[in-house]
Inverse folding.
C-alpha cells in the first residue's frame, strides 16, 4: 500500500500504511502491480527486443531483470550521460537488494540530474533498506518527501537493533486477518496484524500514548473526505516472542474529529520494514510467525532444509520500499512476475489479476456477480474468476476462487507502481496450506506444503 500524502488530489489518493491501516478491508487488490504495457508481450514472453533503450526496457517490463541490467550497462558504455539507463540499472540492483550495484548506478544518475525525483526516491529507499537513515534525508528532501526527511533525521544511533536469535509467535487468529501478540516498549501484550502490502510499523494512537512514544513530526492529511493527523516517531522496543527490535521507526494516526475515528480490529500493523530485517517465515499451515536473526548460518540452514525437502528457491524482488514479487503462473501463463502478499485482510480470493490478463488467458469469469469494492481508495468493481491452475514454485491451487479487475492495468510506472509488468498477485487465502520463508539477504523465497519444521 502506498503511503499517505499530505497533498492529495483525485489522481493521488492513497492509503496510509500506518495511519489508516484499519481500513485495509477495502483493499482487495491493494498490492496488485499494474500499468500501460500491452498484454501480448506480457503473456507471450519478453518479446522481440528493439534497438537502443527499447531493448533494455522490454526486458525490464517483462521481468527479465538480470538481462535488462546488462542491456542498460551496454547503453551506458556507449552513452554515459543516459539518465534513464543509469537510473534503471540502479533500480535493477535495488529490486534484488544488491546495494553496491544500486548505489553505484543511482549515484551516477543523481550526478546527471540532481533534482530528478525518481532517482532521489530510489536512492533514499536504497539507504533506508540498509538503515543508513541520515544519508537518506537529503534524498527524501529532493524527492519532495518532507515527512520522510524529518522522520529519518530523528532516527539516531543504530536502528532495528536485533536482540535474541529466534522468535516464534503463535497466531491468535487466521481470518479475517492474522493477529499476533507483541510487546511495545516492554508493555503488556497487544494484538497486531501483519501485512507485506504495508511498509512501516504502525500502531493506534492509544498504544503510542500508552508506550510513551513522542512524535518527531506530524502532518494533517485527508483520506476519503476525512481529516487525520499522522504522527511519526521512533520506538524504543518492539518484541515478538524471543526477538526484540530496538530503535524502530513507527507511525500512528488519529482522526481530527472523534466521530470520524474508525473502529479498529487490532492494536497495530507490522509491515515489510520489520520483516526485511529478519529471516521471516510465515507458517500459514501451522499458524506461526517465525523470525530469526539473519545470520549466514541461518540462511544456510534454510537452504539445506529446503534442498532436503526438494524445495527450490524462487527469486524475491522488492519495489517501492515494501512491495514483494516473485515468479509464478496463472492459467498456463508460464513463469511471470507476480505480487506476493502475506497477511492482511485478504478475503476469500486466492489471487487477483487485471481484466486484460484474465481475457488473454481465457479464464472463466462470472460477470453476473459483480463485487463493488475499492482499491487504493478508489471505487472499483471486480468479478469472480476461476483459473484452472495457479502456481508459485511447487505450490499449486486448482480451480480456486480468484478475482479480476477490468480497470486494473498491467503496469503502473513511478511513482504509483513498480514500473514492470505483472500478471497478478497471490493473496492470504492462497498460502493457507503452506509455509513460506523470505530470505532478504539472498532475496530468495521458499514455499513448501505443510507446517514449518
Amino acid at each position: 500500500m502506498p503511503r499517505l500524502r499530505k497533498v492529495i488530489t483525485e489522481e493521488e489518493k492513497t492509503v496510509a500504511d500506518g495511519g489508516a491501516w484499519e481500513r485495509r478491508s477495502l483493499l482487495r487488490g491493494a498490492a496488485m502491480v499494474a500499468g500501460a504495457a500491452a498484454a501480448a508481450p506480457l503473456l507471450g514472453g519478453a518479446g522481440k527486443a528493439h534497438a537502443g533503450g527499447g531493448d533494455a526496457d522490454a526486458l525490464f517490463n517483462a521481468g527479465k531483470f538480470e538481462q535488462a541490467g546488462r542491456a542498460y550497462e551496454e547503453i551506458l558504455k556507449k552513452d554515459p550521460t543516459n539518465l534513464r539507463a543509469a537510473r534503471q540499472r540502479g533500480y535493477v540492483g535495488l529490486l534484488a537488494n544488491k546495494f553496491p550495484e544500486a548505489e553505484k548506478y543511482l549515484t551516477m544518475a543523481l550526478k546527471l540530474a540532481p533534482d530528478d525525483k525518481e532517482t532521489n526516491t530510489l536512492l533514499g529507499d536504497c539507504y533506508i533498506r540498509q538503515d543508513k537513515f541520515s544519508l537518506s534525508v537529503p534524498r527524501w528532501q529532493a524527492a519532495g518527501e518532507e515527512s520522510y526527511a524529518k522522520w529519518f533525521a530523528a532516527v539516531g544511533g543504530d536502528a532495528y537493533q536485533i536482540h535474541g536469535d529466534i522468535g516464534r509467535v503463535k497466531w491468535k487468529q487466521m481470518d479475517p486477518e492474522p493477529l499476533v501478540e507483541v510487546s511495545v516498549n516492554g508493555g503488556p501484550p497487544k494484538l497486531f496484524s501483519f501485512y507485506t502490502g504495508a511498509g512501516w510499523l504502525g500502531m493506534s494512537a492509544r498504544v503510542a500514548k500508552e508506550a510513551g512514544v513522542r512524535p518527531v513530526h506530524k502532518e494533517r492529511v485527508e483520506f476519503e473526505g476525512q481529516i487525520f493527523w499522522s504522527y511519526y516517531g521512533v520506538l524504543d522496543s518492539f518484541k515478538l516472542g524471543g526477538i526484540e527490535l530496538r530503535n524502530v521507526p513507527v507511525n500512528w494516526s488519529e482522526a481530527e474529529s472523534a466521530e470520524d475515528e474508525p473502529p479498529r480490529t487490532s492494536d497495530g500493523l507490522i509491515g515489510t520494514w520489520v520483516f526485511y530485517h529478519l529471516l521471516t517465515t510465515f507458517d500459514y499451515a501451522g499458524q506461526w510467525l517465525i523470525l530469526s536473526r539473519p545470520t549466514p548460518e541461518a540462511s544456510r540452514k534454510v537452504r539445506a532444509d529446503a534442498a532436503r525437502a526438494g524445495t527450490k528457491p524462487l527469486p524475491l524482488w522488492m519495489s517501492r520500499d515494501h512491495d514483494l514479487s516473485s515468479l509464478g503462473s496463472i492459467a498456463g501463463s508460464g513463469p511471470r512476475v507476480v505480487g506476493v502478499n502475506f497477511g492482511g485482510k485478504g478475503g476469500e480470493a486466492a489471487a487477483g489479476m487485471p481484466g486484460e490478463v484474465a481475457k488473454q488467458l481465457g479464464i472463466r469469469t462470472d460477470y453476473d456477480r459483480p463485487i463493488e469494492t475499492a482499491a487504493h481508495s478508489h471505487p472499483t468493481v471486480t468479478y469472480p474468476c476461476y483459473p484452472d491452475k495457479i502456481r508459485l514454485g511447487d505450490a499449486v491451487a486448482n480451480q480456486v476462487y480468484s478475482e479480476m479487475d477490468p480497470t486494473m492495468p498491467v503496469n503502473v510506472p513511478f511513482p504509483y507502481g513498480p514500473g514492470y509488468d505483472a500478471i497478478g498477485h497471490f493473496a492470504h487465502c492462497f498460502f493457507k496450506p503452506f509455509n513460506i520463508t523470505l530470505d532478504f539477504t539472498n532475496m530468495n523465497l521458499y514455499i513448501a506444503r505443510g507446517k514449518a519444521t
Residues 88 and 329 are 25 Å apart (CA to CA). Residues 1-41, 44-51 have pLDDT under 50 and may be disordered. The first helix runs from residue 39 to 44. The radius of gyration is 21 Å.
